Amino acid sequence: MKKELFAELVESIEEAGKIRKGTVKPSRVFRYRPVDIKRIRNRLHVSQSQFSLMIGVSKSTLQNWEQGRREPEGPAKALLRIVDKQPQAVLEALQA
């Protein structure tokens, strides 16, 4: 590795450590818009019970997501994004 690249890498690692400790602010921050589950469910015209059965989660989990106490993760989050973009395709697939 060239000396300049190595020095740049070391500098980046040191900066990351300072950001993690809170002594330096990051130069940019990425914010992701949470999935609006209630809006998605209402667009499908289904109840919480029906929607929770469709996507394979408990009704209480769905309620926690809708009320902002928890956020969906992993496959659930991906499925919700797909339902948001292609609701009819997902409805057909899930009702098969």
Please name the defining characteristics of this protein.
single chain, 96 residues, mainly alpha, 0% strand
Structural write-up:
It is a single chain. The protein has 96 residues and is mostly helical. It has six helices and no strands. It is elongated, with a radius of gyration of 21 Å. The model has no long low-confidence stretch (mean pLDDT 89).
Q: Gist?
A:
The chain has 6 helices and no strands.
Number of strands: 0
Query: How widely separated are the two ends?
Result: 55 Å
Order of helices and strands: HHHHHH
What structural category do the secondary elements indicate?
mainly alpha
Our Rg estimate from Cα atoms comes to 21 Å
Topology, element by element:
Layout: H1 3-21, H2 37-44, H3 48-55, H4 59-66, H5 74-85, H6 87-94
Helix pairs in contact: 3-4, 5-6
